[in-house]
Amino acid sequence: MPAPLSLPLIDLSPFLSTRPDPQARREVANQLHKACVEFGFFYCTGVGSVVSRDEMREALAVARDFFNRPDEEKAKLRIKSGDGARGYQRIGENVTQYKKDWHEGWDAYKPLPPSLEDPSKLLHGPNQWPSEPASFRPVLERWVDKMHVIGHALMEATAMALGIDVGGDSDEWQRMKGWVSDPFWVMRCIGYPPLPSDAEGVSCGAHKDYGNFTLLHADSTPGALQVFLRDPAGPTLEGDERGTWIDADPVEDAFVVNVGEMVEVYSAGLYKATLHRVVHKSPTYRVSIPFFFEPTLEARIEPLPSALKLCEKLPGAASTAPVKAVVYGDFLRSKVSNNFSLEDS
Ligand SMILES: O=C(O)CCC(=O)C(=O)O
Ligand SMILES: [Fe+2]
Fold first, then answer.
1. Could you count the other beta carbons within 10 Å of the beta carbon of residue 177?
2. Fe2OG dioxygenase domain location, by residue (predicted)?
3. Which of 94, 125, 150, 308 is most solvent-facing, going by the fewest CB within 10 Å?
């Protein structure tokens, strides 16, 4: 029997070091290129200079403590119909492909300047931070800052992976940096009770992430997150793609990173956003914290010339349909408004 496939591990430390080693960076960029063409997913290690093991534990602990709070307390933070995005959702309120997801969640987005805040407008409300546990907000605000450091490092590694010169002032690298000059980040805390055998959906239905990079930190529960490996001869049909579901079990001190649909656009279809889902059946309460390192709302994301050149060299890996430019904010608004159950019970 062939060994079960697992996602590649990439040590990002050369991109986080203050003393750059060009050869080490080149090697990481090459690994990233291969991982993004083949999987759209990888484990990111070597982040200890940014986030310690204790901080990783603490982030999960405050999220778990929040989910343990009484339902009435969590309900006060429920996502309101106006902003439609920031706050708490009970089990079943998040919907993927018309099926209710078996998880509860709390979502925060980059805050808007007070002059632009308007809770009656999609995404324009304030974040609804819980007051208990008291350390929830300071711990997770620090987390947001740290995820930005890793996000920017991933951006540089991706530029190199696409063959872009990041040392000088190349126009393409300037453009990429501009796209993430003020990321419209999203952070979710997700709590997964065991999936009942009669649930109509799964813990989190199969989907692709829509933005730039997702940095997922989850507790040690195995057999929950699954990634769809595209394979024309694979046993499973998901939408119009054939492939195989593989487990993406947690690796200590590593993030699970995946590329979203915006990377697919600027890499001209070379680095594909990949379907993933959560099917959590074991009898524990699983907690995860995906952080979405996204473009600025105004960024007009378009296929990069270097990516188009690479596609000519790798015709099999590239997208068959031409990839169109999109303004990230427009794309995001269309996605967010589709994500929630319409029931208001
Ligand atoms: O909880 C997880 O492992 C994955 C969550 C996820 O895919 C998402 O929120 O986009
Ligand atoms: Fe996801």
1. 14
2. 183-295
3. 308
Predicted ipTM? 0.99
**342 within some domain:** no
Neighbouring residues of 333: CB distance < 8 A, sequence distance ≥ 6: 122, 123
Cα 17 from Cα 230, distance rounded (Å): 34
| Rounded Cα gap, residues 93 and 342, in angstroms | 8
pTM: 0.95
Q: Which residue has its alpha carbon closest to ligand 1 atom 8?
A: 290
Centroid of ligand 1 to alpha carbon of 73 (angstroms): 24
Dist. CA 244 → ligand 2 center (Å) = 17
Rounded distance from Cα 118 to ligand 2 centre (Å): 27
We report the CATH number of the domain holding residue 132 as: 2.60.120.330
**What atom in ligand 1 is closest to the CA of residue 105?**
9
How many domains does the chain contain in total?
1
Q: Position 63: which residue type?
A: A
Please report whether residue 232 resides in a domain: yes
Whether 318 shows a pLDDT value over 90: the answer reads no
In the reported structure, the alpha carbon of residue 30 is separated from the centroid of ligand 1 by a whole-number distance in angstroms of 26
Nearest-atom number in ligand 1 for the CA of 214 is 10
Edge-to-edge strand ranges of the sheet holding 241-247: 204-207, 276-278, 225-230, 241-247, 236-238
Distances (CA, A) of 266 to 9, 154, 281, 306: 23, 14, 37, 10
Pocket, ligand 1, Cβ cutoff 6 A: 188, 190, 204, 209, 216, 218, 225, 276, 278, 288, 290
Say if 3 falls within a structural domain.
no
Distance 184 CA to ligand 2 centre (A): 16
pLDDT in tens, 87-135: 999 998 888 888 899 999 999 999 999 999 999 999 999 999 999 999 9
The answer to whether the beta carbons of residues 202 and 91 sit under 8 Å apart is no
Query: How far apart are alpha carbons 132 and 49 in whole angstroms?
Result: 29
Cβ atoms of residues 162 and 304 within 8 Å: yes
Atom number, ligand 1, closest to the C-alpha of residue 286:
1
Q: Which atom of ligand 1 is nearest to the CA of 224?
A: 3
In a domain, 239, yes or no: yes
